[in-house]
Amino acid sequence: MSLLELAEVSKEFHLGGATTVYALDDVSLTVDAGETLAIIGESGSGKSTLGRLALRLIEPTRGRVHFEGTDVLALPPAELRKMRARLQIIFQEPFESLNPRMRVGDIVGEPLAIHRPRTPARERRDRVARVIEQVGLSPDMARRYPGELSGGQQQRVGIARAIVTEPSLIVLDEPTSSLDLSVRAQILQLLADLQAELGMGYLFISHDIHTVRYVSDRIAVMYRGRVVETGPSERVFADPQHPYTRALLAAALPVDPDQELPPARLVGDPLSPTRLVQGCVLYGRCPVGEDRCVQTEVRLTPIDVGREVACIKPGAPGS
Fold first, then answer.
1. What separation in angstroms does the CA of 195 have from each of 88, 152, 203, 215, 232?
2. Bridge partners of 204?
3. SS3 call for 316
4. H or E element that contains 56
5. What is the C-alpha separation between 130 and 247, in angstroms, rounded?
6. Which helix (H) or strand (E) element contains residue 204?
7. What pLDDT score was predicted for residue 218?
8. What angle, 0 to 180 degrees and rounded to 10, lies between the N-to-C axes of helices 181-198 and 151-163?
């Protein structure tokens, strides 16, 4: 049984009148314990919406969300509140996610006060102190305010707050994109060490190809609200099958300057998110597209063990 399972999830935002934004369209994904599933795609592809929906911070229009075998969408408020101790999120901007009027120790300890109110005060303080040390901060940081810390230290506080209740799953929404490169590497290593130690599952949302390659076990590539390719990270990077995946990889400079970039050529403009498409969402930009791409339903189809792609001509030359 998977730790998290999203089945045929869709999300529509109604903006008034007849205007509807189709943010997610029939997305199905799983995350296992101790695994990192990375969600990649350009801005507006639905990555952050998917992460918030997985935690039921927003409600899906259609679909099912199961966590540890429990139907999350069917939970009454009291039961959902209990479950939230095992479902956490780390945000992109660390300072904006921290209350500037609270000391670090109180910020880290707040989830314990909410989810474990009967825990003795001394035991709670000891737990906060251990977690602060666990994320690489000195004990004196507990008395400081977020504004007195660097960006990397602030994100460590956010990580400490997320793991203090010993969650099973953490959604990481661009957790290092606002940090300097050297600090980014430290935070990524910290997240990897904590996962190895605590066995948590990660849903890692990013647009940074190199970061995703470093941290993920599997990848789901999103474009305009749909998953267009999934598979083990190394296999997707070595042999991308969807034209959009190829374009993403080609847009990122390789670490090795002698590495040959995969061919990619997208043309035209993306389809409007207010238009619901039954065929391929990349049609009109795809270098190998045909009329049948919009005349037939194009959904994820297995192409190998553990790999799926939403394309009628996967791996076609020129894509």
1. 14, 19, 12, 11, 18
2. 38, 172
3. coil
4. none
5. 44
6. strand 201-206
7. 97
8. 20
Q: Which of 284, 304, 306 has the alpha carbon at shortest distance from 293?
A: 284
pLDDT digits (tens, 9 = 90+) for 253-286: 665 666 565 556 787 777 788 888 888 999 888 8
Length of the chain as a residue count: 319
Contacts of 294 (CB under 8 A, 6+ apart): 277, 278, 279, 280, 283
Backbone angles phi, psi at 144, to 5 degrees: -90, 165
Sequence-ordered list of residues with C-beta below 8 angstroms from that of 101, at least 6 positions apart, any chain: 145
DSSP alpha helix (H) spans, 20-120: 47-54, 77-83, 104-115
Distance CA 46, CA 23 (A): 6
Distance, in Å, from the CA atom of 95 to the CA atom of 82, rounded to the nearest integer, reads 26
**Tokens representing 156?**
């460590």
pLDDT tens column, 56-88: 999 999 999 999 999 999 999 999 999 999 999
Q: Which residue blocks in the chain are alpha helix, DSSP H?
A: 47-54, 77-83, 104-115, 121-134, 151-163, 181-198, 209-215, 233-238, 243-251, 292-295
Rounded alpha-carbon distances, angstroms, from residue 109 to 34, 122, 132, 173, 237: 24, 12, 10, 22, 40
Note whether 264 and 247 are within 8 A (CB): yes
Q: 226-232 and 307-309: which strand pairing? A: antiparallel
Per-residue CA distances from 163 to 39, 72, 121 (Å): 21, 20, 18
Residue 225: half-sphere exposure toward Cβ, Cα within 13 Å: 24
DSSP 8-state secondary structure symbol assigned to residue 78: H
Rounded Cα distance between 239 and 234, Å, is: 8
| Residue 162 · residue 89 · CB < 8 Å | yes
Amino acid, single-letter form, for residue 227: V
